[in-house]
Amino acid sequence: MNDTIRNSGSMPEEWFYPSSNFGALPPELCDEKTSRIIVLPVPYEATTTYSAGCRRGPAAIIEASTNMELYDEELRREPCEVGIHTSKPLAVVDDAEEMVKRIDSVAGAYLAKGKFVTLLGGEHSVTLGMVRALSRFYSDLSVLVLDAHADFRESYHGNKYNHACVARRAAEVCPLVQAGIRSLSAEEAFALDKENVTTLWAQDFRQSRGAADQSELIRRLLKNLTAHVYVSIDADAFDPSIMPAVGTPEPGGLLWDEVLNVLRSVVNERKVVGLDLVELAPIPGLIHPEFMGARLLYKTWGYALKPE
Known about the structure:
This protein is α/β, with parallel strands linked by helices. It has a single domain, classed as Ureohydrolase domain (Arginase, Chain A, 3-Layer(aba) Sandwich), CATH 3.40.800.10. The protein contains 11 helices and 8 strands. Helix 4 (96-112) crosses helix 5 (127-135). The longest helix has 17 residues, at 96-112.
């Protein structure tokens, strides 16, 4: 591993331009040393199997965030008060396993400094690097994945680090809970049952008849999460009617308020120690998907991190 990768968590003397700084924050709110949140862009896309473009997701989300109001009407404060530092994008290589190692190394360096690392992909395979890094800091880590796809294949196209295998690899590290799933192979369905992975199907949310049913779904989810939780959000967990900018849009997905309800509930009952948003593939001329992604991150930070 070269020195550029090893030290990629360090900020140069000059400040980032607003277009590469989440929220276009002033220097006092995006300094690496004082910021509690680190945004780590990883524009990696090597194993996608349908529509491409998620490598452009991190830059698009960050750019959209510069046009976002920083006051949160629900929380009645500005979540950015805890500080949000945007790292330089991590250099990518074609080898999926090597990318996992690089993310693990860089994220681990930030975690050692007590930072809340937020990974911006890129394809979903990048999540494994964060899970491995966090597992060294939290022996009771679990992972909550919001996704349309099970991503639970043992191997895909001869590569066990393919994006279609990321949940399977994460489950080898720590307990896994999935929500929003509505697309999987027979192999994956059998493996999920065998491994006893907790899965809340998208249809469970669609068939819920009211607040009581939704609360029962949340209880099932929380029951299988440990004290410390890493949250991984694939943009295609959302219904394509509100999130069309994904490589494989699946009908019948989750809606904005449903996802916020899940995130809010998890934060209230568990400690969220890391976050990622992956697989957003911008569509030229359509800006609401990346703006929605930026708001989703900002809301989640507001739930998870209170001002000191």
